[in-house]
């Protein structure tokens, strides 16, 4: 008996078309997923890339707005005083002198603001390595104290300096400006007949300087923003003279020296500013590594 084995039957045309349709749909879904994932990934990466740029633009706009506001105040005062005196038919020699004196004070305010704005702009450019040298910390502190002798005498405040025999590594003029700002801030926000105490010590390859006052102190909120440009804190602090630029300049100087600037304060009891700077060798004109 002979059995005939029939060859295997291939897929029908309908089955091939169905398989092709399923493959096409699968490829479409895969490509759609790839496009969506790539789009979301690109959007996320673009956001991460543009975020610093947007932040810089926002800071620049805020800076321009704040600077314009600070400039407007003395200019408005000048204009008001001049217009008020122009309305008078006669003006005495005494009144004219008082007007000129007041105008000069406002011009000094404008010049001071312009100098600080210029200094902030300069500090955005890094210091050249050749500008750094070994500088005596005792000398820096003594010079800064002398710079504010008049204000300290007026308020009957003593500034007590340590004798450290330590040397820091940096730009001498910038560092002197740094401590002058910190001393000025301590005097400005202290009542008469108080004390400002300066402490310093070596910590490994760094120098830690503390400027401690017995002034108004700051809230936690103020401490978070005190180094921002044009920030002057609560009403008690903002009532004092200044533009809110000094501590921002100090922060920039410290950053350029690869140091740190921090504050600890208790409202109504005083503040302590802590400066960390690179230590320099006493024997050699170089920074400790």
Describe the structure.
Keywords: Kinase, Membrane, Phosphoprotein, Transferase, Transmembrane, Transmembrane helix, Two-component regulatory system. InterPro entries: BphY/WalK/GraS-like (IPR050351), HATPase_C_sf (IPR036890), HATPase_dom (IPR003594), His_kinase_dom (IPR005467), HisK_dim/P_dom (IPR003661), HisK_dim/P_sf (IPR036097), Sig_transdc_His_kin-like_C (IPR004358). Pfam families: HATPase_c (PF02518), HisKA (PF00512). One of its GO terms (cellular component) is plasma membrane. The protein is extended. The mean pLDDT is 81. Strands 2-4-5-7-6 form a five-stranded mixed sheet. A two-stranded antiparallel sheet has the order 1-3. Strand 6 and strand 7 form a beta hairpin. The protein folds into two domains: 15-125, Orthogonal Bundle (Helix Hairpins), CATH 1.10.287; 131-278, Histidine kinase-like ATPase, C-terminal domain (Heat Shock Protein 90, 2-Layer Sandwich). The protein has helices at 13-86, 93-123, 137-147, 149-155, 172-188, 220-225, 235-238, 246-256; strands at residues 133-136, 158-160, 167-170, 195-203, 206-212, 260-266, 270-278. The N and C termini lie far apart (101 Å). The chain has 289 residues and is an alpha+beta fold.
Give a quick precis of the structure.
Keywords: Kinase, Membrane, Phosphoprotein, Transferase, Transmembrane, Transmembrane helix, Two-component regulatory system. GO terms for molecular function: phosphoprotein phosphatase activity; phosphorelay sensor kinase activity. This protein has 289 residues and is α+β, with helices and mostly antiparallel strands.
């Amino acid at each position: 008996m002979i059995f005939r084995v029939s060859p295997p039957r291939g897929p029908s045309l309908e089955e091939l078309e169905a398989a092709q349709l399923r493959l096409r749909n699968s490829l479409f879904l895969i490509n759609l997923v790839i496009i969506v994932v790539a789009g979301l990934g690109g959007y996320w990466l673009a956001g991460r890339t543009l975020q610093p740029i947007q932040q810089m633009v926002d800071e620049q706009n805020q800076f321009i707005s704040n600077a314009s506001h600070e400039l407007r105040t003395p200019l408005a005062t000048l204009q008001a005083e001049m217009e008020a005196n122009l309305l008078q038919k006669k003006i005495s020699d005494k009144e004219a002198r008082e007007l000129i004196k007041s105008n000069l004070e406002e011009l000094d305010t404008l010049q001071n603001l312009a100098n600080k704005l210029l200094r902030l702009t300069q500090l955005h450019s890094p210091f050249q390595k050749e500008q750094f040298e070994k500088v005596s910390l005792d000398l820096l502190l003594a010079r800064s104290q002398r710079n504010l002798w008049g204000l300290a005498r007026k308020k009957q405040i003593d500034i007590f300096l340590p004798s450290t025999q330590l040397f820091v590594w940096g730009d001498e003029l910038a560092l002197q400006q740094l401590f002058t700002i910190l001393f000025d801030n301590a005097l400005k926000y202290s009542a008469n007949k108080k004390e400002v105490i300066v402490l310093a010590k070596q910590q490994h390859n760094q120098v830690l300087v503390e400027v401690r006052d017995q002034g108004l102190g700051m809230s936690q909120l103020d401490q978070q923003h005190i180094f921002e440009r044009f920030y002057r804190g609560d009403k008690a602090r903002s009532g004092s003279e200044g533009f809110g630029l000094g501590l921002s300049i100090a922060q920039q100087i410290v950053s350029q020296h690869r140091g740190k600037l921090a504050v600890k304060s208790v409202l109504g009891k005083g503040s302590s500013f802590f400066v960390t700077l690179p230590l320099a060798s006493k024997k050699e004109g170089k920074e400790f590594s």
